[in-house]
Design a protein that fits this description.
The structure is a single chain. With 333 residues, the protein is an alpha/beta fold. It folds into two domains: 8-215, Formyl transferase, N-terminal domain (Rossmann fold, 3-Layer(aba) Sandwich); 222-330, Methionyl-tRNA Fmet Formyltransferase, Chain A, domain 2 (Roll), CATH 3.10.25.10. It is 26% helix and 26% strand. It has a seven-stranded mixed beta sheet with strand order 5-2-1-6-7-9-10, sandwiched between helices. Strands 12, 13, 14, 15, 16 and 17 form a six-stranded antiparallel beta sheet that branches. α1 (16-27) runs parallel beside α2, α1 (16-27) packs parallel to α6 and α5 (133-139) runs antiparallel to α7 (231-240). It starts with 7 loop residues before the first strand and ends in a 17-residue tail after the last helix.
Length: 333
Amino acid sequence: MGENESMRVIFAGTPEFARVALVQLHAAGFEISLVLTQPDRPAGRGMKLQASSVKQFALEKQIPVAQPRSLRLDGKYPEDAAAARDALDAAHADAMVVAAYGLILPQWALDMPRLGCLNIHASLLPRWRGAAPIHRAIEAGDRETGITLMQMDAGLDTGDMLLAEKLPIAPGDTTGTLHDKLAVLGGRLVVEALELAACGGLRPVPQPGEGISYAHKIEKHEAAIDWHQSATVIERRIRAFNPFPGAASALGSDTVKFWQAVVLPGVRRPEAAVAGQVLAVSPEGVDVAAGDGVLRATRLQKPGGKPLDAAEFVRGFALQPGMVFQAPAEQRA
């Protein structure tokens, strides 16, 4: 019998980020007595109901699953909340691990496990509390991020810190690549935290009162590139919005998505060029005038197509120097 099997854990999470942590907890030998995850959602071209990544793993390992629409006993779905409370009570868990679950945990849920609820948050708190910490760290040009393991309370990512580990943000990191690195780090840290908790070794530390920032949810309208911004800012936003929602700009009646780009070092925007103007088209990339410099797009996507490296994209899309990508204020709905 493994040394971790005596600790019973409830896991609450939904997307791939959470599944990675659940896999590591399971592999470490913890007894996962219940999984909470969001209800199945329509997805794909056929919009068929699809189970979350977390649910798929739980079913594979025959772990009980609950999918309440809400956990608020006084909310819109009190019957869901009541059934979930009964399931949590029956799980007799020592701790609950929460990772990108998507539902707010009411006080009754926070209080139920003996060791409380531990949250895996993808930033170095108190920087980037909230829904989109990975996107916002890249968009802001942060040089590092990390994982903070937090003792959950009723606030928005305001609980005491239990463990934290830094991770550098590489110059080419997208939200997709950084997500994968942080998911693995989060799984490793939560295993370490539960092993420390089992022997009373966790030491909660209040979050600093300074350096607080909020990572607001990504909205689709943010995908529109504003070519009046600096080339550096646009390049960061392209990486931040890869893979979702994908930075985009209008060219005539077409919308082109930008998946990778580089700032041309030391190159200033020609005085005669307007923001968004195509300056050069080559197999190396599409050079576009930005607010203060030139951005070379190296991976693009035309409507109905798939993302292509520039050399292949320009062969199938009639781009000419002098054409102008439109800024959001000029785009037509």
